[in-house]
Amino acid sequence: TPIVHLENVGKSYGNVHALRDVTLAVRQGEITCVLGDNGAGKSTLIKIVSGLHDYNSGTMSVNGQARHFSSPREALDSGIATVYQDLALAPLMSVWRNFFLGNEVTKGPFKVLDTATMKRIADEELTKMGISIPNLEQPVGMLSGGQRQCIAIARAIYFGAKVLVLDEPTAALGVNQSGVVLKYIVKARDAGLGVVFITHNPHHAYLVGNHFVVLKLGRVALDTHRADITLEQ
Ligand code: ADP
Ligand code: ADP
């Protein structure tokens, strides 16, 4: 069964129908790429899955259970971690502090960790993920956009996310940085997560995705798996 399953989900803002009848399954070990032009409903979809908005019709199930999230915390506690393009991390805080940010409250064992232990774990985990940050005391705002995305992804994996939702993670990046981030998206999939990769960039989607969903004016215009695509005529 899908980890997250939207069935005929609708969402409107007043009389603007941002999503209509959207059916979409996110499965463990898959990278589901959600493509679509501005206004297609991508942000609205993210907000519903990550607990920022409720939906008006249809059903969203998480692990087979119908859910209406009333806060981002609820989504996170259900294993859905969202990494936003600009707000992935707190820019003025150190790298190691960011690694634990947002998790110390609910994850029992982590709140009792002392500073030295948190620094050691952040260092070990980032190294294990192949992210080399020489100085974990430096503010995250000093790092490149690609490094920040990678730290946010590593953090979600370490804290046990089941689904990783990525909001245009490569949109602001150049070719090299995009390549690095795409590599971490694959790592997250290999770690067993279901990944939702929201992007404008069909090339980036095709490089890593195996499941492609195109939204058009709030509806699903295409839902296909890589195995079903033939490039020959
Ligand atoms: P995308 O992220 O693909 O650009 P959005 O989900 O942001 O699409 O928008 C889908 C539709 O919903 C658009 O028509 C947009 O104008 C509208 N919309 C989005 N957010 C709001 C809002 N808070 N209030 C009113 N309309 C909104
Ligand atoms: P939220 O929906 O997150 O509670 P808002 O409704 O203020 O907060 O807006 C959410 C996002 O949607 C913001 O980025 C905002 O700029 C955008 N937005 C708001 N109204 C519209 C609209 N009519 N069309 C497109 N985007 C909108």
Automatic annotation (TrEMBL):
| ABC transporter domain span | 4-233
Q: A single Gene Ontology molecular function, please? A: ATP binding
Q: Which UniProt keywords apply?
A: ATP-binding, Nucleotide-binding
Put simply, this protein is called ATP-binding cassette domain-containing protein
Which species is the source of this protein?
A: Kribbella deserti
Q: What is the lineage of its organism?
A: Bacteria, Bacillati, Actinomycetota, Actinomycetes, Propionibacteriales
Q: Which residues of the full protein are shown?
A: 17 to 249 of 293
